[in-house]
UniProtKB/TrEMBL annotation:
It holds the Pfam family DUF5658. The lineage of its organism: Bacteria, Candidatus Amesiibacteriota. Residues 48-133 form the DUF5658 domain. Coiled coil: none annotated. The chain crosses the membrane at residues 42-65, 85-105, 117-139. This is DUF5658 domain-containing protein. Keywords: Membrane, Transmembrane, Transmembrane helix.
Amino acid sequence: MNNPAENPQKNNLKEDAKEAVTNFLQSKKDGWEKLSSGERIYATNIGVLILMGVADVVTTHVFLSMGYQESNPIARFGIEKIGELATLALGLSRLAVPIALFEFVRKQNHIKEGNLSLRLCNSAYAAVVFTNAITPFVLPK
């Protein structure tokens, strides 16, 4: 029964799925290769910014669930007034502002300046995530 020759419809479905994934990945690779080096750096920096934002929210949630308190007074106020989930959602949505600004800068053909700004923003976010990550080792509950 597990023989693909016995069920040609299942085999075709697997092949179609494999082809669709291959085509999707190839289209992304082709698109990436068409970008200039500055645009590639920009796209990478935006990806890092998003990852840092997600890491900030995840580490915050993990340590709040472990009994630690939020050290950011604005976020702490938000957690007290609207709840943790809503505050974490707002934390992710705040990524829209820098991404919109960096996109505006990119469209003005200031890729180099945008990339420098993104690196600075990513460095600041990395510091926040690092601070979150060391919290249980330096602060009592």
